[in-house]
Structure formats: structure tokens, C-alpha cells
Amino acid sequence: MKITQNLPELPYDKSALNPFITEETFDYHYGKHHAAYVNNLAGLVKDTKLIAASVEEIIQIGFAEKNHALFNNAAQHWNHTFFWHCMSPDGGKQPDGKIGELITRDFGSFENFKEQFSTTAVKLFGCGWAWLAQDEHGKLEIIAMKDAHTPLTENKKPILTIDVWEHAYYIDYRNARPKFVEGFWEIVNWEFANQNLK
Q1: How confident is the model at residue 198 (pLDDT cuts 50, 70, 90)?
Q2: Manganese/iron superoxide dismutase C-terminal domain spans which residues (predicted)?
Q3: I want to staple 112 with a disulfide (CB 3.0 to 4.6 A). Which of 17, 36, 106, 108 is the partner?
Q4: Which of 177, 174, 143 is nearest to 157 (CA)?
């Protein structure tokens, strides 16, 4: 998936994931939070050599140079764009294709994976993301990452993610993060997960 420095179109209508995510949440989460990261990033790279860089390159540069503003805004833009594609109005159900095979291989069963991923997402303290990633040997793993952090800086391939920053769910669920995580399984985009595998 190519991610540019611009705010992307959502891959579905703002009402398409209702009631899991309402239009009001998209107005704030996508229309304000995600847009702010894009606008901040644009200001940071303006009149620099990074204006022509990919978002992935900016993430790596910001991380390596400990430029927190650059890293956080580029990574949050990338993470959010990726997250929108991890959901689909036609999603949910059991994973099929290669992702289904690898989940069974690496977690024993889909039920084991679902429980481990949900627990990771619910228990992550404060703000962050729960990721399903693939390491350099092709093995799947679940990673809890704080703030804007992403598997990209650990040489791992992102496969799926859920955003557990409070702004992702507070309008629809208040402080009930477990209910938000539970609903994710009804719309998870396994086709996208399959496309991300090495």
C-alpha cells in the first residue's frame, strides 16, 4: 500500500462501519486527528530535502535521528492510513487464505490468536497500537507498541493493527476499550492482511 504525504481518501464511506465506528468518530478521528498529523508533517518537511521522501523513509529518518516531532507525525499518519484499511464493511468472519494458515501455524488456532491479540490491545497502558506483524523469518507475532511506534522501525512487516488511543473509541464507547476491541473482529479486513504478507 503506497502512503503519500497527503491525507488519503477513506477506503469506504464514513457511515460504512456503523455501528462499530460512527460517522461522528470518523469526523474527529480521521477528519481532525489524522488530518492534524498530515498537516504537521507537511510543515516539518516544507523547504527540506524530505519533501520528496516517502512516509516510510521519513519515519526511519525521524526514528534514527531521535527527531520526535518528525517521527511521531510521520508514523501516526502512516499508522492511521494502514488502520483504515484493516477494516472493511465486508470484513469479519474467519481468516482465510494464507493468513488463516499462518495464524493456525503460529498461534495454534484462530481462537488463540484472537484472544491473545484482544488481550494485548485491551491491556496496553495509555496510548498506542496492537499489531500483528511478520518477522524476517516469516513468523507472525503480536506486538504492543506505545504512542506512534510501528513495526517498520523493527524490521518487521505490519499485517494488521488496531488503534487503542482513546480518541479511536471514546465517542462511541466512552472508556470501554474492551467493547471496542471486541467489535473490531466483526469488520477486520482479512483480504488486506493477506495482501500484506511477505
Answers
A1: confident
A2: 95-196
A3: 108
A4: 143
User: Does residue 114 sit in helix, strand or coil?
Assistant: helix
Which residues are CB-contacts of 159 (< 8 A; sequence separation ≥ 6)? 99, 131, 132, 133, 134, 140, 193, 196, 197
Higher pLDDT: 148 or 1? It is 148
- Rounded CA-CA distance 99/28 in Å is 32
pLDDT, position 2: 82
Look at residue 136 and tell me whether its pLDDT is greater than 80: yes
Q: Nearest Cα to 189, choosing from 96, 110, 102?
A: 96
> How far apart, in Å, do the first and last CA atoms of the chain sit?
13
pLDDT, averaged across the chain: 97
Q: Where are the alpha helices (DSSP H) in 65-142?
A: 68-85, 97-107, 110-123
Angle of CA points 42, 46, 52, to nearest 5°: 85
| Crossing angle of helices 177-184 and 110-123, rounded to 10° | 150
- Cα 187 to its chain centre, rounded Å, is 14
AA letter at 194? N
**pLDDT tens-place string over residues 166-183:** 999 999 999 999 999 999
Beta bridge partners of 87: 188
How far is it, in rounded angstroms, from Cα 31 to Cα 26? 6
